[in-house]
């Protein structure tokens, strides 16, 4: 691609795109991409807008999946960012319109430019980290004093993000904990905190106490108690995978409940016995010689 055709990517810090439950299933079924990887790709416009129906808010975004070496169309509601579904080109041709070869080529070039931009950004980050490490060694004592002066203690809620009984995403607070961290370094402080095996034990114990099913939990959220906009999520599994485990678990529970209750139920209606059919009453009489 020439310099004139080269697309410049300015990475978005705030997410806009998110998958519906239906889209998450289709992404897992039809592609080898992770949902969040695809959302990032769409948010950063590494795809081609191939149009939308007149009067509709749903735009059709053609993207290239490197893991599949194939093209797909994500249909997004441009008002709220929701990805409604993901279609292969053949499905899209039957439901909407045909995709041209030129559009596919452009989608691949956009992905390649996006991938190069990520690599360049990571390279700059590594250089900056190396410079910071050198400066930290040179001014270790001064840096230590500055950090100590700016440190704070915050209350943090540890929350489980899980799939509930009716297969809807839910959130439950497991416990609250105090941590020390520095300004603009909340994520690194949580990662450091996660190295403590006692924290993992406490999380497992609280999950059991709250009667949550382990496999239905798809993420842990560490959220600042007073400022809920500050948080860090630890992904355990995809939301779609947690939904499958939850559905199997609740079906198993329902089956077990029915088996237990079956001993107390009857398939027929019992009526009182007529008086003429009642058995004679048995009783003990004293023996007379």
Your description of this structure?
With 289 residues, the protein is α+β, with helices and mostly antiparallel strands. Helix content is 41%, strand content 22%. It contains 8 helices and 9 strands. It has helices at residues 21-30, 35-43, 89-95, 101-138, 140-150, 186-193, 197-209, 239-261; strands at 18-19, 48-49, 58-65, 70-77, 82-87, 152-163, 169-181, 217-224, 231-235. A 5-stranded mixed beta sheet has the order 1-5-4-3-2. The chain has a 4-stranded antiparallel beta sheet with strand order 7-6-8-9. The termini are far apart.
Count, helices: 8
State the end-to-end CA separation. 122 Å
Q: Helix content range of the residues, please?
A: 40-55%
The neighbouring-strand order within the major sheet is: 1-5-4-3-2
Order of helices and strands: EHHEEEEHHHEEHHEEH
In terms of DSSP E residues, the strand content is: 15-25%
Question: Any idea what the shape is?
Answer: flat
Strand segment count: 9
Radius of gyration: 30 Å
Question: Would you tell me the overall average pLDDT?
Answer: 79
* Residue windows where pLDDT falls under 50 for at least 5 positions: 1-5, 136-150
Class by alpha and beta content = alpha+beta
Biggest beta sheet summary: 5 strands, mixed
Topology (elements, then pairings):
Layout (H helix, E strand, L loop, with lengths): L17 E2 L1 H10 L4 H9 L4 E2 L8 E8 L4 E8 L4 E6 L1 H7 L5 H38 L1 H11 L1 E12 L5 E13 L4 H8 L3 H13 L7 E8 L6 E5 L3 H23 L28
Parallel strand pairs: 1-5
Antiparallel strand pairs: 2-3, 3-4, 4-5, 6-7, 6-8, 8-9
């Amino acid at each position: 691609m020439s310099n004139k055709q080269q697309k410049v990517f300015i990475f978005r810090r705030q997410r806009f795109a998110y998958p519906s439950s239906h889209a998450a299933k289709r992404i897992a079924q039809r592609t080898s991409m992770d949902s969040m990887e695809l959302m990032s790709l769409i948010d950063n416009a590494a795809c081609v807008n191939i149009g939308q129906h007149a009067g509709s808010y749903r735009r059709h975004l053609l993207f290239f999946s490197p893991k599949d070496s194939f093209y797909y169309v994500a249909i997004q509601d441009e008002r709220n960012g929701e990805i409604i579904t993901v279609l292969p080109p053949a499905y899209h041709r039957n439901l909407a319109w045909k995709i041209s070869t030129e559009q596919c080529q452009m989608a691949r070039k956009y992905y390649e430019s996006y991938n190069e931009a990520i690599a360049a950004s990571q390279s700059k980050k590594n250089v900056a980290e190396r410079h910071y490490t050198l400066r930290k060694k040179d001014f270790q004592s001064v840096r230590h004093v500055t950090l100590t002066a700016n440190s704070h203690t915050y209350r943090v809620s540890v929350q489980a993000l899980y799939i509930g009984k009716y297969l809807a995403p839910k959130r439950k607070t497991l416990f609250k904990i105090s941590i020390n961290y520095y300004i603009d370094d909340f994520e690194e402080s949580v990662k450091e905190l996660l190295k403590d095996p006692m924290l993992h034990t406490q999380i497992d114990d609280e999950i059991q106490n709250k009667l949550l099913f382990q496999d239905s939990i798809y993420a842990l959220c560490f959220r600042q108690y007073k400022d809920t906009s500050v948080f860090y999520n630890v992904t355990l599994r995809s939301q779609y995978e947690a939904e499958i485990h939850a559905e199997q678990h609740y079906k198993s529970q329902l089956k077990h409940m029915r088996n237990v209750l079956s001993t107390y139920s009857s398939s027929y209606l019992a009526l009182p016995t007529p008086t003429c059919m009642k058995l004679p009453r048995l009783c003990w009489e004293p023996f007379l010689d």
